[in-house]
Amino acid sequence: MCGIVGYIGKNQATPILLEGLKRLEYRGYDSSGIAVIDGTGASSIHKVPGKLDGLIKALNNDFPNGTVGIGHTRWATHGRPKQANAHPQVDCNGDVIVVHNGIVENYLNLKIQLQGEGHTFTSETDTEVIAHLIESSMLNDKTFEESVSNAATLIKGAQAVVAMHASHPDELIAFRLGNAGGLAIGYGSNETYLASDLPALLPHTSQVTYIDPGEIAIIQSHQVQHKSLDGKIINKVIQKAPYDEVAVAKGGFKHFMLKEIMEQPHALFQTLAGKVSLDPPEVNLGSLPFSDSEIRRLNRVVLTGMGTSLLAAHVGRHYIETLAGLPTEVENSSEMCYRNPVLDENTLVIAVSQSGETSDTLAAIEKANQKGCKQIAVCNVQESQATRMVNATVHLGVGPELGVASTKTFTGSLVALFLIATYLGKRRGLIDSDLMGQLLQDLSSIPRLVGQVLQSENEIAKLAQTLFQYENVMYLGRGINMPVALEGALKLKEVSYIHAEGFPAGEMKHGPIALIDREMPVIIVAPNDALYDKMEGSAQEVKARGGKVIAIITEGNTGLKSIADECIEIPETPYLLSAIISVVPLQLLAYHIAILRGCDVDQPRNLAKTVTVE
Ligand code: AGP
To answer: Which pTM does this prediction carry?
Structure first.
């Protein structure tokens, strides 16, 4: 949530900041702002409520002069989106200038205390206290760096902060506390860049370091010093960023969401690459540090995550129960971290997170760490918080996902979870070489089958025309396709703002059936499997009540084809893998419905790609 950029160097800062913010807008877009300082120490701050385009319009090509600056795109927590609450925030004199991602949990106490000392506040944000805290220490003869460190020790909660000072135009100071957001520093030639996320740095450099929680960085054009908050120097090795710029561009597609849906065959191939060999059949998960006897001693698995990642975890449960024979539970991370779950060192916790920065998921990982569990992260962002907190990571490797609605990372997570299940199953003696060969053959065909489904895009776009004016849509699925129904509904509500709910098909007659009438289309995910007949029964029950049925069916099906109003066909797939295929038409349907409704699919209202606040 919230995107932060910074620049210090030889070039004009404003165009660099604006370009960086454009690439981070998926993190929040309630308001945006920049501040730059010129050679004389004069600062200019420009900020507006609403999207970045509003700021660009307001600047009207009249960019403030200065080669050092910071910028911010906001996802509002404290104070509604309006100019006064946009970042940067400043102290009483406007000398200390701050951008912030996260929540200052004790801001109210600090604000009251600072007001008592005579500080005047102009916003409702928690961020503003940080600027005043820095000002307050500087008034007590502390240096700028000491004052920023001091502020970091006084505020509570997880956050990332960047501060600059009009009288210190040769440095930016940044720090992180806890697991909110990331901060990466990019190294150029006598210029240094800073951003919450790599896509904003990649046009300029691929040489990066990361600020870890509890660290502060003194950033100058020609050097960066990483320190702990108590002032000890930390030597960081400059690394090569794991993505290139081409991978984050839209590549000819109108929206990131569509690009990311369409690139799934290649993306899933990347998830498999290096992890699967067929002769002899084996899964290679590189860094898994658990011995075979530790794996045999496991007594259960807990899968956790939020949103789409949580729904991927629900599919993963089927994989682990079936292939590894382990009792498996799925826990919503935001609940798991506030319970006292019965976990021990023989429990394997698998945290699924595209970003690896979702604060609820990180809290669940922390809880599992306290209980001494073994932990694996299924994650798309290398070097993210989650990957550093667990014993091992299975990387999705699907490339950056910038559309706010997750698509390729859902299917990538399913592939990764399937691999983990087969890996465990083999070591627990449930999967012999023949079965492993069969499972991996089936899995290797998935990228091709997803490609086949994508060829139905025009048909799905036509179907969208029959659905886009409805205000409610129900999704039903059973077994491995139950979470797919929920994911289809989540995608639709996120990008089109249609009220959509997914249910286990068997649940329908226990309440949701009361909603069915001619105004309620019901999307039924019913590929050919052992549960197909039951799904056909659910379709009959909907039709009997005047509902409209849209069915996702296996090619060649005749039963549902004669009952449903509309059908989308998908290729035949083994039961466990069918969720990776059946979700794809639902992603495309949500996209096309949202486009027909004129919605901003890449930046849906109220959402942010990565939720780094609780
Ligand atoms: C899904 O389309 C959303 N982007 C959201 O539900 C997301 O899956 C959730 O916030 C978890 O994010 P993570 O995978 O980065 O942890």
So the answer is: 0.79
